[in-house]
Amino acid sequence: MVTDLTPEPAQPLTTKGQATRERIVRAAAELMFRDGVAGTSTPAIRDAAGVSSSQIYHYFADKEALTRAVIAHQTQAIVDTQSELLGRLDSLTALRAWRDVVVQAERDLHCVGGCPLGSLSSELAEHDPSARLALADSFSRWSGAIRDGLQRMIDRGVLRADADPHKLSLAMLAALQGGLLLAQAQRNSAALEAALDAMIERIEQHAVAPGG
Amino acid sequence: MVTDLTPEPAQPLTTKGQATRERIVRAAAELMFRDGVAGTSTPAIRDAAGVSSSQIYHYFADKEALTRAVIAHQTQAIVDTQSELLGRLDSLTALRAWRDVVVQAERDLHCVGGCPLGSLSSELAEHDPSARLALADSFSRWSGAIRDGLQRMIDRGVLRADADPHKLSLAMLAALQGGLLLAQAQRNSAALEAALDAMIERIEQHAVAPGG
DNA sequence: TGTGAAATGGATAGTCAAGTCCAAAAGCTT
DNA sequence: AAGCTTTTGGACTTGACTATCCATTTCACA
Question: Of B124, B74, B190, B86, which Cα lies nearest the Cα of A171?
């Protein structure tokens, strides 16, 4: 499920062309994160990226195609970062450290904005089937990274083998997404902290030894 | 925090006027749930409600005001339903029954649409401050209903007094919202079930007696 | 039953976004 | 350096949406 779900008909792109394309995607990603997809106009992207209208439509068939590129961009940014963080999971202490990083990041943003993937999914899931599929895949990769971390904890004897890493990873990602959603609405990270803490305490039920 | 957050300047409304207003809100709520707020045009609402354009602007100052009315409408529908369901919480068995109702409802919808309040929050939180405040209040009332149920379980000796109903209720609502978000993207209720199950198992840590 | 307020119908102004088009510049290839 | 492809600029078409306006009908109430 990690195959390329949006096989854009790859035209030949010069180095300069690649740079322009990426500038457009970055600007669009930033604006769409802030204002939503529907709230982001192509003229706004054009100005933010410092390009002309024709360039947007030279590199993307339409706004939907650009949106798919934004999804791929955000997926890579988030899943890569998360995979690195979660790649170090080898103890309950490390799991709590991951929780602290996530919570601190949200606090630093004053709970503004939520999760880019969560927002995109909420806005696009019923509107753009290919976007929904791409985001489903993004979430699968993300929960897969969590699952691998939990599996590692089992392999190292931190958690007992009766833990179900797959199910727990889905639950953890759901807690994270829901926590971010509530934190955004309430401008307060309490719900995010409660959700992640509860999920960690759930995982601790499988701990071989209490504590770290 | 349950005060009226959207004190629309109440004009005199005849019975007929109230009915028309409600027809508009209902139609708008349905369309906004399906297509999002930005994706719902006033002409579409006009046609769905069977009214003329002037009627929409007779009863609402602008689309934002109508959107606030939709938020109030969905809040009442959801929080009322949930409060009734959660009002029966008096055992772990009842908690699991609540979980089953929520999961079954999502399955019946084939995981299409997510939570109306969650979708509205994701779309509007950064765009319409008064909408964000109203939705924050909606979520507080919802988690409050969960908290009351958990408190009742403590009072009845089902859960020990070391359980923190407030924090657990925030975590449970986050798990629900995140589970719905992932279920919508993946068209599969597995994440919702995993999240709710994990949260119930977390709560069971405080059970006085195992089982029911 | 008459009068003013409320409700309704429908046309329309004003704005803005998506996407197209074509000419011109820049860049690669040989 | 010629010739072809890629890239770029920017005007423009088309269409849709928000909101307004005003004439007309319906209704409440005295």
Answer: B190
Domain count along chain A: 2
| Tens of pLDDT, residues A121-165 | 999 999 999 999 999 999 999 999 999 999 999 999 999 999 999
pLDDT digits (tens, 9 = 90+) for B124-145: 999 999 999 999 999 999 999 9
Name the pLDDT band for A9 (thresholds 50, 70, 90).
Answer: low
B167 shares contact with chain A (CB less than 8 Å):
yes
| Residue A36 shares a structural domain with residue A113 | no
pLDDT tens digits, one per residue of B171-194: 999 999 999 999 999 999 999 999
> CA–C1' distance B11–C16 (Å)?
32
What pLDDT does residue A105 have? Answer: 98
Q: Which residues lie closer than 8 Å to B111 by C-beta, 6 or more apart?
A: B183, B184, B186, B187, B188, B189
How far is the C-alpha of A101 from the C-alpha of B117, rounded, in Å?
Answer: 28
> What is the 3-state secondary structure of A12-23?
CCCHHHHHHHHH
Beta bridge partners of B159: B207
Is nucleic acid strand C under 7 Å from B13's C-beta? Answer: yes
Nucleotides of C under 7 A from a protein CB: 5-12, 16-23, 27-28
The answer to whether A208 and A159 are in contact (CB under 8 A) is yes
Other CB atoms within a 10 A radius of the CB of residue A12 amount to 5
Chain B: nearest CA to A137, how far in angstroms?
A: 8
CB spacing of A195 vs B174 below 8 angstroms: yes
Q: Is the C-beta of residue B42 closer than 7 Å to nucleic acid chain D? A: yes
Contact check, Cβ <8 Å, B177/A175 = no
Which domain CATH number covers B42? 1.10.10.60
Which bases along strand D come within 7 Å of a protein CB atom? 5-12, 16-23, 27-28
Q: Please indicate, yes or no, whether residues A17 and A78 belong to a single structural domain of this protein.
A: no
Q: What confidence category does residue B21 fall into, taking pLDDT thresholds of 50, 70 and 90?
A: very high
Please report the pLDDT score of residue B209 as a whole number. 84
Q: What is the pLDDT of residues A17-69, one digit of tens each?
A: 899 999 999 999 999 999 999 999 999 999 999 999 999 999 999 999 999 99
Q: Do B80 and B126 reside in the same domain of the chain? A: yes
- Give the CATH number for residue A128: 1.10.357.10
Question: Do A121 and A22 fall within a single domain?
Answer: no
Chain B stretch 41-80, residues whose beta carbon is closer than 8 A to a beta carbon of chain A: none
Query: How far is the C-alpha of A197 from the C-alpha of A180, rounded, in Å?
Result: 14
Q: Within a domain: residue A41?
A: yes
